[in-house]
Amino acid sequence: MTTATATANRKLTAKDFQVPFPNDWCPGCGDFGIINAVQQAFARLELEAHKVAVVGGIGCSGKAPYYFPVYGVHTLHGRLLPFAHGIKLANPEMTIVGVGGDGDGLGIGAGHFVNAGRRNLDMTYIFFNNEVYGLTKGQAAPTLAMGLQPKSLPAPNIQGQLNPLMMAMSVGFTWIGRGYSYNVKKVVDLIVAAIEHPGLSFIDILQPCPTYNNLHTKDWYAGKDLDSGQPRIYWLDDTDYDPVIPEGADDAAVLGKMNEFLTKAHEWGDEIPAGVFLDNRATSTFADRIETRIENYRAQPPNKREIADESGRPTADLSEIFDEVRMT
Amino acid sequence: MTTATATANRKLTAKDFQVPFPNDWCPGCGDFGIINAVQQAFARLELEAHKVAVVGGIGCSGKAPYYFPVYGVHTLHGRLLPFAHGIKLANPEMTIVGVGGDGDGLGIGAGHFVNAGRRNLDMTYIFFNNEVYGLTKGQAAPTLAMGLQPKSLPAPNIQGQLNPLMMAMSVGFTWIGRGYSYNVKKVVDLIVAAIEHPGLSFIDILQPCPTYNNLHTKDWYAGKDLDSGQPRIYWLDDTDYDPVIPEGADDAAVLGKMNEFLTKAHEWGDEIPAGVFLDNRATSTFADRIETRIENYRAQPPNKREIADESGRPTADLSEIFDEVRMT
Amino acid sequence: MADRRYEPQSETVTINHDELAWRVGGPQGSGVDTAAGIFQRACALGGLNVFGRREYYSNIMGRHSYFDVRVAHHPVHSHCDEVQLLTTFEDESLARHAISVVEGGALFYAAKDVEKEVQGITYLDLRAKDDLIAYLEERGLPTTLGGVLEDARQRGVQTYEADFDKLVESLADQLDIVSALAARTTNTLAVAMSLALVEYPRKYVYDALAKIWPGRQKIIDMNVAAVDLAYQFVRDTYDTSKFEHRLTPSQSKEPRILLNGNQAVAMGKIAAGMTFQSYYPISPATDESTYLEAHETFPSTNGARGSVLVVQTEDEISAVCMAAGAALTGARSATATSGPGFALMVEGLGWAGINEVPLVVTLYQRGGPSTGLPTRSEQGDLFLALNAGHSEFPRIVLASSDLEEAFYDAAAAFNYAERYQTVVIHILDKSISSKTMSVPPFDLERIRIERGEIASPNGGHEGPYPRFKPTESGISPRPLLGMPGGMHWLTGGEHTQYGRVTEDPVVREQQMEKRMRKLETAAREIPVDEKLRVYGDPAAEFTILSWGSNKGAIVEAIELLAEEGCAARLIQVRIMSPFPGPELEELLAPAKPLIGVEANFSGQLAQVLRQHTGIACDKLVVKYNGRPMAARRLYETFKTIMDGTDETKIVLRNPNE
Amino acid sequence: MADRRYEPQSETVTINHDELAWRVGGPQGSGVDTAAGIFQRACALGGLNVFGRREYYSNIMGRHSYFDVRVAHHPVHSHCDEVQLLTTFEDESLARHAISVVEGGALFYAAKDVEKEVQGITYLDLRAKDDLIAYLEERGLPTTLGGVLEDARQRGVQTYEADFDKLVESLADQLDIVSALAARTTNTLAVAMSLALVEYPRKYVYDALAKIWPGRQKIIDMNVAAVDLAYQFVRDTYDTSKFEHRLTPSQSKEPRILLNGNQAVAMGKIAAGMTFQSYYPISPATDESTYLEAHETFPSTNGARGSVLVVQTEDEISAVCMAAGAALTGARSATATSGPGFALMVEGLGWAGINEVPLVVTLYQRGGPSTGLPTRSEQGDLFLALNAGHSEFPRIVLASSDLEEAFYDAAAAFNYAERYQTVVIHILDKSISSKTMSVPPFDLERIRIERGEIASPNGGHEGPYPRFKPTESGISPRPLLGMPGGMHWLTGGEHTQYGRVTEDPVVREQQMEKRMRKLETAAREIPVDEKLRVYGDPAAEFTILSWGSNKGAIVEAIELLAEEGCAARLIQVRIMSPFPGPELEELLAPAKPLIGVEANFSGQLAQVLRQHTGIACDKLVVKYNGRPMAARRLYETFKTIMDGTDETKIVLRNPNE
Lengths: 328, 328, 657, 657
Ligand SMILES: Cc1ncc(C[n+]2csc(CCOP(=O)(O)OP(=O)(O)O)c2C)c(N)n1
Ligand SMILES: Cc1ncc(C[n+]2csc(CCOP(=O)(O)OP(=O)(O)O)c2C)c(N)n1
Ligand code: SF4
Ligand code: SF4
Ligand SMILES: [Mg+2]
Ligand SMILES: [Mg+2]
What we know:
The complex is a heterotetramer, with two copies of chain A and two copies of chain C.
Chain A: H1 31-44, E1 52-56, E2 71-74, H2 80-90, E3 95-101, H3 102-108, H4 110-116, E4 123-129, E5 132-133, E6 139-140, H5 164-171, E7 175-180, H6 184-196, E8 200-206, H7 218-221, E9 233-235, E10 244-245, H8 251-266, E11 272-280, H9 286-291, H10 319-325
Parallel strand pairs in A: 1-2, 1-3, 3-4, 4-8, 7-8, 9-11, 10-11
Antiparallel strand pairs in A: 5-6, 7-11
Chain C: E1 20-27, H1 32-45, E2 49-56, E3 64-72, E4 83-88, H2 91-97, E5 101-110, H3 126-138, H4 145-154, E6 158-162, H5 164-175, H6 179-182, H7 186-197, H8 202-212, H9 217-237, E7 257-260, H10 261-271, E8 276-279, H11 286-294, E9 297-298, E10 306-307, E11 309-312, H12 316-328, E12 333-338, H13 339-344, H14 346-354, E13 359-365, H15 382-387, E14 395-399, H16 403-420, E15 423-429, H17 430-433, E16 436-439, E17 489-491, H18 505-525, H19 528-531, E18 532-536, E19 543-546, H20 551-563, E20 569-573, E21 575-577, H21 581-588, E22 594-598, H22 604-613, E23 619-622, H23 631-642, E24 649-651
Parallel strand pairs in C: 1-4, 4-5, 5-6, 8-11, 8-12, 12-13, 13-15, 14-15, 19-20, 19-22, 22-23, 23-24
Antiparallel strand pairs in C: 1-3, 2-3, 2-16, 7-16, 9-10, 14-21, 18-20
Helix pairs in contact in C: 1-7, 1-8, 5-9, 7-9, 8-9, 10-11, 10-16, 12-14, 20-23
Bound molecules: thiamine diphosphate (2 copies), iron/sulfur cluster (2 copies) and magnesium ion (2 copies).
One magnesium ion binds next to α3 and β5 of chain A.
């Protein structure tokens, strides 16, 4: 395992973003496809490993950071967004990818999810949507539809379902996509686009959990139970759906797009749309906004500012501050 | 102050729901209108005081429970929904009214807001929307638009704005309205309807904070700054907007209503809609769902079940439970 | 001891030949739990006493887990670090546990693994690999599982090879089923081979299968066939004479139930009349709540069907607030969690404290800090349980040490909560929660439900009800939300007797004093036998102070000492708040030496003891590798102390668990 | 003492006539803060030493607030329960505080209030009303403010009536402005009347106005006119000879800044090079963060503009996690909160602890438990600060006692955090945060920034960086997120040296021991003078053990004792973790009696002392009504103890604050 850096004579490959440690997800878990896709996306983007942080929540999904030779941060249940925000705000040069479960993100972490939307900080949040709490053995996640009973539940789910796409849109995520973990190629494209988007990106990944979710399995997504036998998932880029809110879009344009989004996000059942749902280029990033307060924020971000001279003396000059309260 | 109970020869009035204690909101605060309205609504609904709990968050708004001679529960910052849920679930006979601020509900409390939507428990949540953190002296609430600078902020707000109506709809509240605190009459109607709705109701109340919100003042809502000089607020019941999703509505109907809702909820500026935005009668209540698991839930709710005989012996009969694990 | 790595960890212990310490290991999800379940049930159905200990990774499939089962004619309360019989069916279990089989013991292994390099075992921790390889190299043995087996043989262990694939094939042939299906009996085969080896009557194994898969006759039949095959195979294949242990069923057929700690607590709660439980999933607490969910309704002596409303919340903050809300209505209400979840409940506990809400929180400690060792055990949360909350409010903290206490304490917690109208934290740990034991069915006659002082507000007062009226005991009659005439306010703020917020300094003092007085009342009223218990020779000077799940192992260690004529006693502290300082001062006066035994880094109980009494432990015996203590290791340690070791802090280590 | 209610609370104290204890009260939002600000600045600008104490309700407008200011030629570190001069301009302040004016003192009151019934004062607490009415009735006085005034006169207090409405009218006339505008000067009028009474040169008042409203000449002019009017009015109207106190400016013009505790901490953080602070608003911590927001950029000796990125988060959980995330990149990072917010940070602290993140948390204690007394003071959170988190990790807990310590400790906290790579909790309380003092400008030369061991990973290693490599000190060089070659993992789970999660028992022990070793290292390295400080006569047996904001009052009390020839010393504990047990054992050996003084219910420091050393305090002097201790009350209490009282727990009460 060495530092992944593209050099003049060598392109990076997914291998550069793999680690020689065993992985302990269940055989056939949808999570594998996701990390494969992330590895490929990193390579395609030619990221320097030390400038990347993969920040995980807690859950099977939350273990994903262990599988990249970058800065891998396995945080607390529901808290990947605040940790990721802290890292990115203090070191804006880093590429931040959040990886977390649906329980993590919309159960215990929902408050951060909602308020992260308000900031539009430049990072990508990959949401592992398996409809269950995997690591605690199969309880209902907030993404599980009411009335369903995956195998660990003693009775059908009595709580309603949240639609992660709707949630992301309602709170202000500016790039929203959906992937399917067994279609790695498409997921790679989504991740690349999400990382390239300069604001807060969200990817809902439909991630079968063969161990606990016996309802929405690989076969189900493949439509094996349907008369048509056709896969349930179809791709928005094969339709004329346009996810873009262009820079400077007016309110009516934004509202129009939101309505289209809503209609698409609502689709489920025999036909499930995937791909890019929203690409909002009209909203400023958090870094832009910080610059209105701290002009040299990008040049002198919190992690870079020189705070002491060689002998450890503070560089901060408090004379102005003292003057405000100076009496004699 | 006596127990408010309507008798054959006397109708209840708002007075029956007032208390003889001083109130310490700032003069002119929008909160006064809200409690007046709640008191009138209680009277109109002829509620028995002991069957009502007003559950508050923390903030100026959170103090509202002190102003009713019912069970008044002043909880923790952001936690009114979990406490309210606990009370209602254990004693389903009670009428529960939540009263809390915008910071309380969509800042620190956002996670509960989101997940309460999944349950559709029969209670009413009155959301005091003043766009600031009143009690901590005027910081930005999550409802404050980006770029605005109410007087306590040292610089314009750099975080985005959440739309409470959108939020409530996205997560599953089944009755959603908006009021304006200086129009008490309309607020009374809204509260009555919200309480009568058998599921989770949400009322966004535009609540001027004369002390800290110098932008959206009574005058502003009255449209004094507009060329027209007309009030900004208009009422949906004066339009042909229909908030109802009827019982048994199909998916397409639901989606259609959501789109209409979205369009209305998005309106802001010179014309601000208020009134009933959503009245969803198609979703089952949490109590209905619990009954699928515990048949006698309504007759023997947690607070009523007889758990001991006169001599304190448990009524629970564990023989079946022991039998499952009995070896010899 | 720090570098005693892959090596036998204890003196060889003599355990009677008619009892057995058995271990089965395998990858998570491969049926290890089922195997252990069959084994334990077979033994328990034969009237034997069973003690099971489960170790597993925070993982769903693939990582190593194992089960230790001790079986005896007398009750057993602890596992052994070393076992007499080990069953493995893949590489990792053999590599990890061969070293823990005692001289004269035996192990089963899968034929196909012999050539496997230790280095190539997928999930074996690097540290463990390195140590094992070094151990084998030192002894000139090949660094393969073959080397491991050879070492075992050199240490006097019988090694029995089994070709599980072949056995599965024969079973498939015999039943005319596909091998994939037959392969599901691998764990049954392994268990049955163990039981065949100790010549245990196979009818109990049949019965066990019926218990495990009630009503699922096809599966039972297939497994019965597997049992027969295994018994046959052992008889035909092995020389069993070298392995002397034999297990005979017991004549006595006292009633016994076999269950784990999570279940015991759940049952205690049901018995106590709990009607509401909120929870957010977290190991090792989840199983209690999911058990309750699966037993949401049950019969009731009054004819009506009883029930517990179990609500899965969005997080632990919601769980604690919801439970508190429910408790206000008079419902007996609780939530269950472990360290990280409890950490999130701190603010909610304070609210319940100042509002005098009878709230029960069941806290299953696991390895920490932070996410720590989510599926391992530690007694690390005592400090937090005692101090969770800013400023001060009275709380009862109650620590159970075994399944019986877990049951009765779970029930008692509600009495304390309602009597003292405050937060009760019932502490257990992972090792109790996943420990299985055969115990007499719990006696509901021992439970009396006391609901504390409930107001009857219709007695004619005017205005709001003085819910928080200062009293001498600190306890004020409480109206339940919904009672006519009982209206008052509740607030996290300091308040008047009506519950209205106040900042008046005098009222503040009154309320603070009123609340804290409840702790004195509780200290006065709770019987000393509930506060602490003494085991062993009460007159002994050699005194062990401990709490919680260590009890079983300590008591057994004391018995071993007693057999050698060494007197010792254990003082088990059960109520941590109000801390029984005065009682302990008296009891501990003659202690010499005083030895704190705890499964945490710094001896938390010992520190709390000193905080309250000034008494310091002379020695501290601690274990913080996330695994429970074994009786015999404690026995050895106590001997070392009796022999006059200089060490004041002795860390129990066992790299092989 | 418990029923000593509305009554003078102290023996009449003699304070030199050239110093002054002054109080101003009024409804929140009516300008009390401004009034006090003018008064303090006027005094400070005259070279006097100023000490201000602010009391206010958790309310925005209308509830009672008051400000105590002590002014002297010598430094002052404590307020007085009794004052010499009281300024009021409405009913409630007069009703509350008249009783606290000493014999020979004076008060101002508004003419219009005299007839007002005590019963009719809107926000006066019921308890306070009842007590005041009973007091007046006992003395045969009318239960009106007239009665209150009459009582004051009987007690030898000068009462000066002012018709503020009339004064405002004359001002309006004089300046030709509307009365509503002129009425805004009411507080200036009140302050100026006080200063006129003590014949303080009015030019300092003018200067104070300019300081308060820099650049707002119109407002200044109006207030200058008000000052003149008030001085004139006092001279014309009152017989000032009966009030003997006079205030003269000081000749010495040593440099002084006037600020409060929140500002001192903020300045310390800026000086220390903090570049990131996350926060969620909460009293009494908010003001620090909003001060930082308003001073987000500042000049820097290296030419570049310095800055602190301040982020308002959605809650305290986010605040602590975000700050930890930022700290991982090498940014000096902190968050500030108070009890309820800190309660929510417990899980996050554990994560920072196990990941060895240099994270500073500034904890402003307020009255608890729960929401408690949000704007009042308590030292109730020591237990929580020491024990927040399940299981164990090393933490530094540092408690400041005054504004200077607040500044230097705020800076030192980052050195500790980075040196020991762990969580530092810097504890203060509401009384420090809102205390204003004139102090010498802080000396940045006393600050040296030490960044601890930072890795230089490009030094040629292979593979992930061994971030958590066990070392003797427990400290391992840390790469900052973003450094080339420094890649490793971070996890709340137990981990290998690379930060990968592990459940290996041996690695677990190594990491646990490595982490906890840092505490020993810190205990060894931190100079004793940082750990604790001794005041008074170091040879005295009479020993007071205390911490935090009580220091000022205790030191003054000791000085008063010394004046009478009674020797006493204070031992102030500053570092609470690692607790300086050995140092204290030595220091406390001759203590007789040992008296714990704390602003909490149960003597938390005293208990921590006992936990670590076995030493118990002989007496406990506590105050838990949410208000700080006054020097003279402590002095009286110490005298009682010297006189041999039997009481072991003495509660300081003052119903009139
Ligand atoms: C504060 C806290 N509460 C609970 C847990 C226990 N826990 C671990 S993983 C998990 C749920 C994981 O579900 P999800 O986020 O959907 O991830 P998945 O395993 O499905 O990928 C929970 C509740 C925890 N670690 N921390
Ligand atoms: C855990 C916690 N954090 C912070 C606070 C401090 N606090 C009190 S009120 C408040 C904000 C109130 O704002 P909002 O909810 O909008 O109510 P408003 O005062 O505007 O009605 C905050 C942050 C608290 N009480 N508890
Ligand atoms: S439990 Fe489900 S989500 Fe977790 S690893 Fe297994 S298959 Fe994947
Ligand atoms: S601060 Fe604002 S919201 Fe609070 S009481 Fe005053 S006006 Fe009302
Ligand atoms: Mg999931
Ligand atoms: Mg608000």
